[in-house]
Design goal:
InterPro entries: DUF6470 (IPR045527). It holds the Pfam family DUF6470. The protein has 100 residues and is an alpha+beta fold. The protein has one domain (4-74, 85-99). Helix content is 42%, strand content 16%. The protein has a three-stranded mixed β-sheet, with no helix packed on it. The chain starts with a strand and ends with a strand.
Length: 100
């Protein structure tokens, strides 16, 4: 029987580098994103309420409705920035196994 080489290609790090996550990691990231958004919304509403409550200091609804403009930062990267992990294993199998 001929010796066959088994090729194992692990693209987990490459996929993570471009934003693809495992299902568990994706669920955790989305749960954290939702919690952060909820807390930011609560904080914003508290701040708006405090501004409206202090109307005698010159705060107006316009100050709340029209927020100041923010600077935007642009980043350009080549993705993925990591290589896949490739392993070659001698096998006595009659088939060529390729795992991605």
């Amino acid at each position: 029987m001929n010796n066959v080489v088994r090729v194992l290609i692990d693209t987990t790090r490459c996929r993570a580098d471009i934003g693809y996550l495992t299902p568990v990691e994706f669920s955790r990231a989305q749960a954290k994103k939702g919690m952060d958004a909820a807390l930011e919304g609560i904080a914003r509403r508290v701040e708006e309420g405090n501004l409206l409550a202090a109307f005698e200091k010159g705060n107006t609804i316009e100050n709340i409705v029209v927020p100041p403009l923010q600077d935007v930062e642009l980043t350009v990267r080549m993705l993925p920035s990591v290589r896949p992990e490739i392993k070659f294993i001698k096998s006595s199998s009659v088939f060529l196994d390729v795992y991605l």
